[in-house]
Amino acid sequence: MKRMSIDLLSQFGRRVRVGLVGGGKDSVIGRTHLVAMRADGLYDVVAGAMSVDPEVARASAQAELIDEDRIYTDFRVMAEREAAREDRIDAVVIATPPQLHFEVASAFMEKGIDLICEKPLTRDLGEAQRLNELVQRHDRIFLLTHCYTGYPMVREARALIASGALGKIQCIEGELCAGFVVDPQNPDRHWRFRESAMGKGVLLGEVGSHAHHIVSYITGLRVEEVSAEMTTFAEEREVYDNAYLTVRFEGGARGRLWGSYVAVGNDHGLSFRIFGEKGSLTWVQEEPEVLWFKAAGKPALRLARGYNCLSPAAAASTRFTAGHPEGYALAFANLYSDFAKALMAKRLDLPYQSYLDGIPGISDGVDTMALIDAAVRSNDKGGAWTALTRQEIGLPGRS
Amino acid sequence: MKRMSIDLLSQFGRRVRVGLVGGGKDSVIGRTHLVAMRADGLYDVVAGAMSVDPEVARASAQAELIDEDRIYTDFRVMAEREAAREDRIDAVVIATPPQLHFEVASAFMEKGIDLICEKPLTRDLGEAQRLNELVQRHDRIFLLTHCYTGYPMVREARALIASGALGKIQCIEGELCAGFVVDPQNPDRHWRFRESAMGKGVLLGEVGSHAHHIVSYITGLRVEEVSAEMTTFAEEREVYDNAYLTVRFEGGARGRLWGSYVAVGNDHGLSFRIFGEKGSLTWVQEEPEVLWFKAAGKPALRLARGYNCLSPAAAASTRFTAGHPEGYALAFANLYSDFAKALMAKRLDLPYQSYLDGIPGISDGVDTMALIDAAVRSNDKGGAWTALTRQEIGLPGRS
Amino acid sequence: MKRMSIDLLSQFGRRVRVGLVGGGKDSVIGRTHLVAMRADGLYDVVAGAMSVDPEVARASAQAELIDEDRIYTDFRVMAEREAAREDRIDAVVIATPPQLHFEVASAFMEKGIDLICEKPLTRDLGEAQRLNELVQRHDRIFLLTHCYTGYPMVREARALIASGALGKIQCIEGELCAGFVVDPQNPDRHWRFRESAMGKGVLLGEVGSHAHHIVSYITGLRVEEVSAEMTTFAEEREVYDNAYLTVRFEGGARGRLWGSYVAVGNDHGLSFRIFGEKGSLTWVQEEPEVLWFKAAGKPALRLARGYNCLSPAAAASTRFTAGHPEGYALAFANLYSDFAKALMAKRLDLPYQSYLDGIPGISDGVDTMALIDAAVRSNDKGGAWTALTRQEIGLPGRS
Amino acid sequence: MKRMSIDLLSQFGRRVRVGLVGGGKDSVIGRTHLVAMRADGLYDVVAGAMSVDPEVARASAQAELIDEDRIYTDFRVMAEREAAREDRIDAVVIATPPQLHFEVASAFMEKGIDLICEKPLTRDLGEAQRLNELVQRHDRIFLLTHCYTGYPMVREARALIASGALGKIQCIEGELCAGFVVDPQNPDRHWRFRESAMGKGVLLGEVGSHAHHIVSYITGLRVEEVSAEMTTFAEEREVYDNAYLTVRFEGGARGRLWGSYVAVGNDHGLSFRIFGEKGSLTWVQEEPEVLWFKAAGKPALRLARGYNCLSPAAAASTRFTAGHPEGYALAFANLYSDFAKALMAKRLDLPYQSYLDGIPGISDGVDTMALIDAAVRSNDKGGAWTALTRQEIGLPGRS
């Protein structure tokens, strides 16, 4: 069961002070971050520039009982003023649209504030690489909130593959196919439908990035080449709303990634299936407590959160006994919990890297941006196999 | 989507201050309460007598960053001292074994502190009735944490039945059949296995109470008579470890309740099936996001949390969009959220009863204690049909 | 994989000749018997008194290409004439309502014709016992078509329990709860709703018998005492439409059997759950290819038809590789196949008893009739525990 | 419910006489054909060249009680001799490896014998086109046994899409990913692993053909272009063992087809998901009784075989009431049943085309061979988009 990091918290003597940029009252993802960061009692929300709309910014901050003098409408002002306070924030949560991530992250990073950033990492690969360099230079802790990797059974999948239980990985299937229905009378203004956010391939940032990250996370394999077929089905849309990617992984595995807005009828749509020489794993985000392990010639095993037979990584991500579904918010909370421990440990001059091993960081974000970049180029060339651009110096391998 | 009670919190100006009795570091249920009460940011844990063991009490409280002067080892001292403070606790959470509930609840109630109490309500029916009278006399808000009724889809089931979608209810099946394996070398000291907690029928308090409460909650029907067959399968046990109850409900419905410790292999084991003249509902706690509605002669409908077609009660209990499983902690959090709103509203002299309508209270606890009392008597008489003892004056109907 | 009994068929030199009594064109169960007996190519349908209505009898027989001179409307005439032929039928299929089973079976048995009989065995326990005596005296092979025991995974459940995989059996749950909707304008004339068929408890013959037989079959345990609560919910009905039975098995296991017509929304409704000291089994007829085995403290195993790890009994009942669902008709066909092999072997003076070991016989029918008899008496006495009447001489144990 | 074609059978006066080529005792698919053709009592197996091995041929035929003088070892001799008999076979079942299909079919077709042929249609596209021309010229009835289209819920899917319930189709996902484990000590000699059967892309004939046919069947859409990525993972194999196809359909839909031998752990692996503007359908062969219909913004509907709300096509393919799983053999039997009716009707000079509308014919086979041909070419060109070769004159559209 989850150790609540009691000793670290006691040593640190207080909760992590956090400020929010974006994620105001009208934001779905903002609500989610708040629930996730509260769950384990490791954070205090003390500052926020939660909207560019001053009224929304104020109302959102008041709802969190943030003091008047720490409610901001401009993230640069917030970075400046917070840096000047004795009780300054330790970390900032960036929940704005992706085209602002680079600027916001840069502003706080320079003040020595650690970073929790929504996916996709940035507007494009170039920004991602520059942000990576800055993070390395400033030696900041960086959490990219690919929340689904906080699920214990996703971590179990990663541990099982690392243990060799599946043998050499051959086929890798990941998808996040959503069903966003177009209402022409009431067009969705979300950045996911705007070319301005990250070009015509923005759906790869919004949904495709989760599919890519989760399979990379659990297999530890990186995509080398991609062949893409991207389509816009809904005439009203200025961006692609379906992307089929066929991919070649390092070491020879083959796979497919599917990101879609037109999977009508789907509630969520994230899943993976990994096939190795000796067995396979299947996981569906909508039943996150269960991981199916099917070994060649054996009955399927229904592995579930809380079981004694699971890996330390899964056990450490678990709060309740089996059969009490922990759900999405607590998966998300696992990322926040690991980040808080790393932050406290680092500031206490204790070893902290191990807390970061299981959570997505800046290099994962760069990796996905490289895939998106290559996929858009492949699609422009009629699906030709296209290699991902890597900037190896800036990409420290995940330990 | 869930309204975060922003206006009430702003008006109240601070979070609800809460103290804990029991639920220390070695307690599974204590951890759960903490996660649940944190989720919506409506509570501050400021005091605690979390264990009778001073070391555990201290360590548990420190882990919550409770101030030294509010860490107690005796709940009576805690009630006394807290009552004397200006920043006294608003509510106490009682997470001790059931035989202490009456005493703890009484001590705090007399000081004007509202009550959040674990199930089963008390040691026996007599205590339950006396506690009920005290709660009425002191006019206290009382939450009995039958946490599973906090699930949106359980609330949807209740709303569907109230709407007449199932027609007249005929058959009611509820069960919580757990698989606690006996380890003779290492006997479980949990109160659930101790006759001292509430007699040989303690499993009806531990597991049976959830099965009874959930079907009562969703159907609004009370059990009138019970025929019980209780057994001890594991020789090492001093209490029954299996209880089959056949029950007759007011209005003519028939049903069965099953509470068990010997359902080996089960992870959790709570479910209900309700059959009416026009259709049926099925829900399994381990897949809590889904409620199956099967109308006569029609395909089954898979209703899920977050859908537009759901009742206001379900919608108000929902934080995230469909397909992002909220899980057990957020179901539990719904009880805490409703309780906090009722408490704030009452203290602000606003209408508050509506916040209590959807959460289990003292009368639900008395009702279940009456069932347990009758079931034990029936079993002693070879399964003879036995009427429940009601003390109608003390039992205000659920509005 | 299933051995098609090739050698026996070759030795016998022809298919088994079979005649039908009842089961005409307007009969659901008749169609099922025909598909089941055809599947393995071991039967020729050559005679029939398929309805008391001459037109239906003729049309039904012609549809099976039965010769004109072997189409009958009276089963006694059929027994007489068939017995006089050189190419006489080897076996008769009795698919009439239950109150005729005794008479029809007696008529053919006396002519040396073997018997395939629909459930429930007879109108009442007395008839069942007398029929049993006749079958023993005439030394006839008798198949009672409790078709669900032909499923490979039901046979696997039996083999697993016999192997001790579950340890001592403690709780036994069986149910067949159907949802037959009442249409007052168009009442169902099926015998299942007629008191004349077997009294007010006829639903125990129609649906309850399957629930009882299947759990007896797989556990090998017989019910000793029953406590019954039977109800008529639909006013239009002259019989009970819901029966809750709590039962005590020999050796100490406890269980519940549920037979219902009012489980509105159910498609079929047969399932069992068996809990032993070491593990449990769950099977649902509507997903018949899968048997869930859950051992204490271990992940659930999804056992499926066709797997290499299954018992000889399951393997011998299997035609196709895993993942090609065999379904209900081939389960039924397994009973027909075993019966045909027994019949051929017996007539070839070969050992034949082993073919009968896995299929329901006359003693199973007597056993269920004893349960029904005791359940009705218990219900009449307000649910008092009532012992089953056994006539041990007439009840040879299943080997 | 299924009408058993009683009148046609009575008019025809006898069952369809059928001969088998291939499919002997050592053949899995042979056993399946036998069960399928027996189920509805419309066929008599009277002749066979069931193996090239004389002993296997003889034993296989004897097991079916075929007369000595109609047991053959050479299909040409069989065609010759059968054609000369008065009681000649009406139809031949071709269950040999694909490279023999053309020759066998030609031999019998010329004698006026109708054809039931296993998939894939032929060794290559050229053969397929020539066979198509021969079938048209000889005016023969031709059933290609893509057995999965016999499932009632697959036919329901087709009817739903034809009715417009999904709106314009956008994404089409079909797969048959099997997990055939390589045993180097005991290599599988099945044609599915032999380059000689149909080249290195033989897996597209063995498994890919089912995925392609089923989505074509239900959507009525033909593939125009394909981009293929084919791989050999198991070094021991002389053929590809994984094929990822991205496809463009006529009218703008996009899709993916996956055929694999390396989906380790899968029992079977056939499924489809079809997404239209208004809703989606999901079906998995291993739970064939259920078709999920998810309309935009509505709860998922669980449609099941036997429901009153289904289309005439599904109803006509159904034998038993809902909840009695019909399974694979009866799906297969639906093809046999429709073929028999067409054959009888045609020979009775009655309209017969409607019986063929729902079953796969020669043009379906040509269509899949064109896909395979283009996929192999695309793969050879590094996944370039490759148009399918059509020979429109020879390809009468499915009416």
From TrEMBL, chains A, B, C, D:
The protein's name: Gfo/Idh/MocA family oxidoreductase
Limits of the GFO/IDH/MocA-like oxidoreductase domain: 154-281
Domain Gfo/Idh/MocA-like oxidoreductase N-terminal: start-end pairs: 16-144
InterPro entries: Gfo/Idh/MocA-like_OxRdtase_N, Gfo/Idh/MocA_oxidoreduct, GFO_IDH_MocA-like_dom, NAD(P)-bd_dom_sf
Gene3D superfamilies, alphabetized: Dihydrodipicolinate Reductase, domain 2, NAD(P)-binding Rossmann-like Domain
Domain of life (superkingdom): Bacteria
Cleavable signal peptide: none
Pfam families: GFO_IDH_MocA (PF01408), GFO_IDH_MocA_C3 (PF22725)
